[in-house]
Structures are given as C-alpha cells and as structure tokens.
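Lab meeting prep.
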Amino acid sequence: MDPNAPIVRLAGVRLDRGGRTVLRDIDLTVPRGQVVAVLGPSGSGKSTLLAALTGELEPAAGTVEVLGRPVPRRMRDLLELRKGIGVLLQGNGLLTDLSAAENVALPLRTHTKLPRPVIDRLVRMKLHAVGLRAAADAFPRELSGGMARRVALARALALDPPLMLYDEPLTGLDPIASGVVMDLVRRLNDTLGLTSIVVTHHVHETLPVADHAIVIANGGIVFSGTSAQLQASTDPLVRQFLDGQPDGPIPFDAAPRGATVPEAA
C-alpha cells in the first residue's frame, strides 16, 4: 500500500438496506494517522457506513476502497482484508467463558501460527497498552463496563491492524470510563501509528480527540471539517444535532414513507 494514499476512500457511494436507500452520494477520504469522528443522530446510517468498510454490505453504487484497494467480494480475499481492520463493537463481544487474556489471545490463535509463549507475551503487551495487565485472569462478568470495553479494545488490536473502527464505543459507559476510552483511542492511534474511525453520537466526549469530523443526517454527509469548524458551524441541521434540539431539519421520526423498521444507528 502506498504510504501516502488514503487508508479509506469512498466515491459516489450509495448504500441500501431492506429495499431502501440509507446513504447516498457519499464521498469520504480518510488520510493515514487521523482520528475521524463519524457523528449523527440515531438511525442516520452510521453503522451502515461501517458495514460497507468491512465488506459486510456491498454498495449499490460507487466505490469503496480500504487499505489501498477496493473492498473485495470473494470471501477469502475479504477475510484477508479484515485482518488489517480492528473493530470494537458497542456490545464488546467478549466470550463469557474465557478470561480477559484468553479473549485477547483468540485472534492470535485463530489467524497466526505463533507459539504459545509468544502469544502469551503479546497478550500481556496488549492488556498493558489498555491499562489492564493485572486483570488478565478475570472473566468478563468480573469486569466493570469500562474495563470490559478496554479488554475488547485490546483484542481488536491483537493482530496490529493499521485501521481501527469503533462502533459506538461509549455506549453504556459512565463519564469517567468514557473519558478513559476516548483518551486510549487517541493515545493508541498516535503511539501505534493507527488510523481510527469512531462512529458515535457522543459529540462532546469524542470531538476533543478527533482530527476530523463528519456529520451524517437525512441520508448523506451534511458536514465535513475539523472539530473546531464543527463547533463553529451555523448550519441549522448541524446545530440541531449538536445542541440536541427536538425541532429542526432532522425530523423526530426520520423513517421515510414505506419503511417499517427504522435503520440501526
């Protein structure tokens, strides 16, 4: 991959789910090394965008490039691409019958042929990176919400992916745990040389660590710029989202006519 090429590039992308268009005319370029916040109200299609980046959802139109090449359709090629993408799910996805260390080791045991002592050392390094080396033997039920989220982060980093995708990483966390997680996102991005895309509706916790922000609403990108530019925006749609106003360009019931189920955030 060309080190100067964008790590993610979308051009003229349209994404459909359930027979309806969720996002349209999406043009997005993510340079290497940045933390990019993808913001928007619930149901705006933020997670649908992530699904296109991981190859879970094929675009109805346009092109999606990740890690310097179009997202492949063949499953074998897609699985190879996904090794370079770390994903932190909002539900953590930890296996409850495995310890924290065993959860972090799972990708290494599945996708590499490294000997057990090397895997154990890498696991300790990943847990240390998120401040949880002492919790290696704890099970998910013994961890607080914030600690479990950090274990999931360590697991997402296990294969040293150049690209990290965070899907609502602050869901269910208190303000202190939210601050810890977002500080980790920024610090790990810089120290490990990552690129991070953070999908969230938690504006005030995310903007301080983001280099760039985009806002998705009403089926498309309505803002793209720095965090400071976003805060200073006078666009009525952007201001409605940032200020939490119930009335404005974003309707309370955003589902289009004919849709029976609102799109997931």
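Slide two material, second protein:
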Amino acid sequence: MKTKIKEKAPRLWSKNFTILTLGSFVSMLGNSVSGYIISLMIFDMTGSVFLFSVFTVSFYLPKMLFSMFAGAYMDRFSRKKVIYTLDFISAFLYSVVFLILLFELNFYWLFLILVLIVGSINGIYEVAFNSLFPNTISKDVYSRAYAVSSMIQPLALCMIPVASLVYYNAGSAAPLFVFNAIAFLTAAIFETRMDCVENHIQSKENHLTFKAYKKDIKEGFTYTASDKGLMAITLYFCIMNFASGAYGTLALPFFKSSPEHFANAQVQFPLLFPVLGEKLQGILEYLCNDTATLYTFVMAFGVAGRLIGGLFQYRLKYSHKARFTVSVLCCLIIALLDMLMLYLPARFIMLCCLMTGLLSIAVYNIRLSTTQAYVSDEKRARFVSFFEMMFACGNILGQILSGVLGEFIHGRYIISAFNIINLIALFAVIVANAKSVKKIYNIEIKEDNPKNKTTKSSPA
C-alpha cells in the first residue's frame, strides 16, 4: 500500500538568499546615505538647482551606460563574483572618500568624480543582483522573495534621517563614510560564501570577443523590442521615472526655498498642535522653520509607506489575474498624489508620501516578480540591462530638463506637468497594450496555486 507524503515546503531564507539580501541591503544603505549626504553638501555649496541636477545626473548617466553594457557580460560569466568584487571596490572607494573629507578637500570636482564612479558601480551591481536573485530562490516563493527585496531600499532609507542628523551635528560626513567602508567590506566577505548554481555560464563560451559582445548587447534590445508586453512595461517605467526625476531634483530645493509655505506649525498641524505638550510643539515649530529637516521627515513617511507596503506584499494573497489591475490603479494614484502634494500643507504632504511609498512597493513587486519569472535565465541579464538603461535614461532626462526649467519656473509646476505626462503614458502605453502586458503581469507563478504542489509516493 502506498501513502502520499507532501514534499517539504520550499524555504525562503536559504543561505544564498539570506547572504544576497543582506549584502544588497548594505549596498543600498551605503549608497543611499552617501548619495543623500553628498546632495546636501552640493546644494549647500552651490545653492543652484541646475548644478544640483548636474550632480544627480552625474550619478545616473554612468549608471545608465554601464547597466547597458553589463547585461551581455552577466549572461556569460559569474554574477556572484561580480557582486562581491564590486562591494570590495566600494569599501576601498568609501575609505578614500573618508580621507578626502578628513583633510577637508571639499572641491566640487572631487564629488563629481565620486558620483561618476559610484554611479558606474551601481549600474553594474543592479544588473548582477537582479539577474542572480532568482537563482537563490524557488519559484514556489517568488512573490514573498520579491516582497522582501522590495523592503531592502526603504529599510536602507530609514538611515537617511539619522545620517542627516550626524552630518549637521558632527559638521562633517566623514563618520558616515567610515561606516560605509566597514559595511561594504563585511558584505563582500560574506558574499564570497554564496554557492548558488549559475546555469547560464557556458564553459565553452567563457571568453568574450568584441564581436560576440556587440551581438549580445544588440540581442538585449531586440529581445525586449520583439515582445510587445516587455517593451510596453519598459517604456512606461522609463516615462514614470522621467516624472520621478523631476520630483527627486526639485523637491529638496522647493522645501529649502519655500519657508513661507510651511510657516506656522499651528497652521500646518491644526488638530495635532493644540493637544501636544510644549516640547513636542517646539519640535513641530523647529521642523516648520528648518525646512531641510522637514524634508527629511517627509521622506521618512515615504520610507514608512514602503516598509508597510513590503510587509503587506509579504503576507497579502490575491489572484494572479488581478495583478495588472492592481498595478494600473497604483500607478494612477501615485501620479495624482505626486502631481498635487506640494500644493498642500506639511501634514498632507506626509500622508501623500506615506501612500505613494505603500503603493510603489506593490507596483515594484508585481513588475519585478512577473518579468523575472517570464524571462528565461539565459536572457535575463540582457533584459535587465536594457530595462535598467531605459529606466535610468528616463530619470536622467527628467533631472536635466527639470533642473534647467527649475531656474525659471516654480518647481511644483514642473513636477505637476511631468506627472501629467506620466498619466498620459499610463493609458497610452500600458492600458492600450493591456492584452500583451497582462500576459506577463498575470502569469501564474507556482506559488499562486498551492494545490499544484507535487507529492511523493512512499510504501506503507
């Protein structure tokens, strides 16, 4: 007689998944903290919205270029080795930055070179990470795994308010870069211990000629362009990031240059202010007077939204057939909130950031988990490479254009106009190609149907 024994449920937190996730958290943490602090330093040094946007573009331009060329390499060679090598390089780089700040060599061109290098590393790292990530998990836990992945960035961003306080109180960013160097070195050492199987590596093709390299890069373009759904998703997220580029460039200058918009804590928080004690009232008054710190706390609400959204995505179960609708509705609400929030009092801006953070995680999780399941392992790095290039390209265009226009036009008008373009693109690109996009977004991943779990027969 035979009895059926259920297979052991696949474990999410395997050794490889844990190491890669924690390593990615360290990378996000280090780069988020350094990027934000350097942006504050640059804006404080120059006071120019245009030069501030030049700095931001200096990060995204090499990121775009290197992500474009990284895919062909990642589809032939070890992605794991690329990840820990880049983290060793980052540890060395941030040690050098610490010495620069220690000796107070605060020249604009030094920071410009720094962000060019960091942007290049980020471009390669993201392609390597996104290509290797599916190899560390089972398809039975895809959505949960990407829900965890979606929380990495907001968790890292939680440190930005702390970093801001350290910077302003210590009078230098040097301690932050020491922390970065140690964190990257630790992550790199652990990443060398990963032993996930990389089936894409073909021993007969482990040398890459220029001709083969050119062919592989072209293949990344043609592969995405030949699939109507993948192309629509890539194009829309390029435009969405175009609008996001404007917000990222103009929000901080808006807060710093518009103290009158946030004046009077009793007006900004009319229901909350009267019930608070003197100390808490003093904190609110300080925030409304120091708009740079207020911006940091507004950002914290966006981070909190992403964390809550990540936890929801980890636990939430809904039909795979609803993913397309959920994603479109979330993108619609995000565009509307981004378009309107800077016209509102501080309390409503915080709520808008909380909502956009929460919804953006749903969009991220749906897009990443489904495209990674849809694209084969052999083509994944080339698709990721093309997507990251287009994604960065949208951001760069948004930053440059908004930076130029920001010298003449009020920042919130520009952000509103860019998000109107975002809304038009949502309907013209995603909704208009709903059938092709649904084929990807509504794909049934193994964990969507637990009844399909296989069983083993065992003799009685």
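Talking points for slide two:
The domain at 2-201+211-459 is CATH 1.20.1250.20 (Growth Hormone; Chain: A;).
The chain is about 75% helix and 0% strand.
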